[in-house]
Amino acid sequence: MSTTSFPTVALVGAPTDIGAGARGASMGPEALRVAGLQAALESHGLQVEDRGNLSGPANPWRPAVDGYRHLDEVVAWNRAVHDAVYAELTKGRLPILLGGDHCLAMGSISAVARHCRATGRKLRVLWLDAHADFNTSALTPSGNLHGMPVACLCGFGPEALVRLGGEGPALHPQQVRQIGIRSVDAGEKRFVHEQGLEVYDMRYIDEMGMRHTMEQALAGLDADTHLHVSFDVDFLDPDIAPGVGTTVPGGPTYREAQLCMEMIADTGRLASLDVMELNPALDVRNRTALLAVDLIESLFGKSTLMREHQVRKSTFQT
């Protein structure tokens, strides 16, 4: 797949850990820049424009109120993200949101859903994560909103977050494919099953392999589908990606992660991307950011294969 098929890429930084339970993800955007993200993408022939960082309220680091920590601040940050991502989409650009914690995906995906409604396109979301992020205030004792974005996007959350895109909810559970999941609370697990979320957890990947997993997750994509990837860096095994606030052992290996990204690239449908939860304060010499940049390159067509690259579009499309 040629990189000339991609529109201009717009980097949008959201330097906040407002929804997280640990400090440090606010430094994620700069760590990705220091790791050479823009130059790496440009080396593959892409046009890249760095929009700098969004601004929003400081993290007050307060306990939960009525089941949510920092709700007003989370809403403010997500409105800023929504507006920035939607503006890039309306200009025909491919936005990459540099997080920041994963609560910010509520803003980006609400913008993508709004754009799809306006253009009459279907939406598919790939959620690459160690966690299902399908908690609600009734299910989680912490109140950390970075554990709730998928639930909020599907309509289970505060009105201000459910309706970020002007209509709500942004997603139906059947539009989401979760990959790499291996840490889910008991109540959250029941709720995931009740709502019919399609989850490819690590046991599924262990049993079926990453290739089959991705074939299933990408099945049915066509030319009218906008593919959004929300990549939480804790998706990766902490042995290769220690720089995250919520490490969970047993994640995808380097090669499994590369295959995942390469097969997404093979579809030619990637149209927006989140890169979330990178925490340089917990990293070793920016190692996790460098790995994230490597994997993002693969999303845009870099291949580790020695053989001639073969596009497998027919595998995924109906």
TrEMBL record:
Q: How is the cofactor bound?
A: Binds 2 manganese ions per subunit.
NCBIfam families associated with the record: rocF_arginase (TIGR01229)
Q: Which cofactor does it need?
A: Mn(2+)
Which Gene Ontology CC terms are recorded?
cytoplasm
What family name appears in the similarity comment?
Belongs to the arginase family.
Keyword Manganese recorded: yes
GO annotation terms (biological process) = arginine metabolic process; urea cycle
Q: Binding of Mn(2+) 1: at which residues? A: 102, 129, 131, 133
EC primary class? hydrolase
Tell me the GO molecular function terms. arginase activity; manganese ion binding
List the keywords (alphabetical): Arginine metabolism, Hydrolase, Manganese, Metal-binding
Q: In which domain of life is the source organism classified?
A: Bacteria
Q: Which InterPro entries match?
A: Arginase, Ureohydrolase, Ureohydrolase_dom_sf, Ureohydrolase_Mn_BS
The entry's Mn(2+) 2-binding residues are 232, 234
Question: What EC identifiers does the entry list?
Answer: 3.5.3.1
Tell me what reaction this enzyme catalyses: L-arginine + H2O = urea + L-ornithine
Give the protein's recorded name. Answer: Arginase
Q: In which pathway does it act?
A: Nitrogen metabolism; urea cycle; L-ornithine and urea from L-arginine: step 1/1
Q: Which PROSITE patterns match?
A: ARGINASE_1, ARGINASE_2
Q: Which organism is it from?
A: Tepidimonas fonticaldi
